[in-house]
Amino acid sequence: MLTAVIATLGAALYGVADFLGGLASRKSTALGVTVGGQVVGMLALLAVSLVIPPASWTDPVLLWGIAAGLCGGTGVLCLYAGLAAGRMSVVAPITASLSAAIPAAVGLIFRGEQLSAVGATGIALALVAVIIVSLTDEPEEGAGKNTRAALLFAILSGIGFSGAILSFSQTPASAAFVPLVISRFTAIVVLGSIALVRGMRPSSLSNVRGLVLATGLTDAAANAVQVTALRIGPLAVASVLGALYPVLTVILARYILHERLRGWQRVGIVLALVAVVLTAWPA
């Protein structure tokens, strides 16, 4: 299935972007790197949109980009708040699984999408793989211990990211990538305002400019690929396989940073690979 292949490619690009962003965040601040990457990505997508313009620049459907930006920006803010309040082992799996499961449920229940038994099995395995790969038992320096708050923020983050996915799925191919540009601009306004309030300045990224540039470009490419998969559909396949990005992030951390790959994460990676094959299997 073409959707499965494109969505998996998008997940791979997201995984690379997250890995690069994580490297940059170790030398700077996560919020600063995120805002910087958003700016780079917006400029790249704007350039692409000038070359491949929408059918109409005044089509109201482009405004779905605002909804996506507000939802995505809220998701990022809640993710940061959740990671500050509690452990990543609580926040990451919940956020990742909800951002995949909610759009999938909307596609299957409200849009009447049909999946074969093999495809449905693949989606179920993908959800399990996302949760397993996202788990960690490493001590987290600076992480808070407010588990209830972390749980709430994780749920809100997952809902926010789901809202962004559902918003993008409402945009037709005729809109090209302009909704992505609008989404990025909206998210930059939201996150940039927070960064300014916290006293962050562009100069704080001076030592990670190359990583921020690479993060922004890779993330922009991932967005473009993901939106393409969402438009082709079905939504359940595109959203769930698109959420497999932690898999490549973990693999890159293992072989580039030599971080330890835990036993259950190995199982999760294998499940993810099986899930992709099953979901892409012809009906």
Query: How is the biggest beta sheet arranged?
Result: none
Helix content: over 70%
> What is the H-and-E element order?
HHHHHHHHHHH
Number of helices: 11
Helix-strand layout with pairing:
Elements (H helix, E strand, L loop, with lengths): L1 H26 L2 H22 L12 H22 L2 H23 L6 H18 L12 H23 L8 H20 L11 H24 L2 H8 L2 H12 L6 H18 L3
Plain-language structure description:
The protein starts with a helix and ends with a helix. It has 283 residues and is an all-alpha fold. The longest helix has 26 residues, at 2-27. The chain has helices at residues 2-27, 30-51, 64-85, 88-110, 117-134, 147-169, 178-197, 209-232, 235-242, 245-256, 263-280. Helix 1 (2-27) runs parallel beside helix 9, helix 3 (64-85) runs antiparallel to helix 6 and helix 4 runs parallel beside helix 6. It has one domain (2-280). The protein has 11 helices and no strands.
Brief summary:
The protein has 283 residues and is mostly helical. The protein is built from 11 helices and no strands.
Supply database-style keywords:
283 residues; single chain; 0% strand; mainly alpha
